[in-house]
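Action item from last week, closing it out:
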Amino acid sequence: MQQTVYPKPPDRRLEQILSPNHPLCKDDVVWVLEFVKKKVAEQDPRLLDLPQPRLLKNFQHFAEAATMLLQRRPSCVSEADRLRTALMEASFGLLSAQTVPGAYRSSP
């Protein structure tokens, strides 16, 4: 009997991707960028509650992650760490600080 595979809820997938134990791949980075873009377009209330300086910081890190994706050097551990940090910062406010260990160290 074949099991039905259900996709992970978006918040759960974001948690998994941002986890330091999860190896980042290009598809994960693109997924996070698309997820953040969608939440901004939908005017997600979690983002609307953030102060403007924090939203600007989110955007700065979103742009940094997108640029790093274009210039990414494969198998460079420090680049992967920087990319994960940029993704965490770009998605700030979309997950609680307790959800991802070490995430959201920054303040507004």
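Closing note: The helical segments are 10-18, 26-41, 45-48, 52-71, 77-90.
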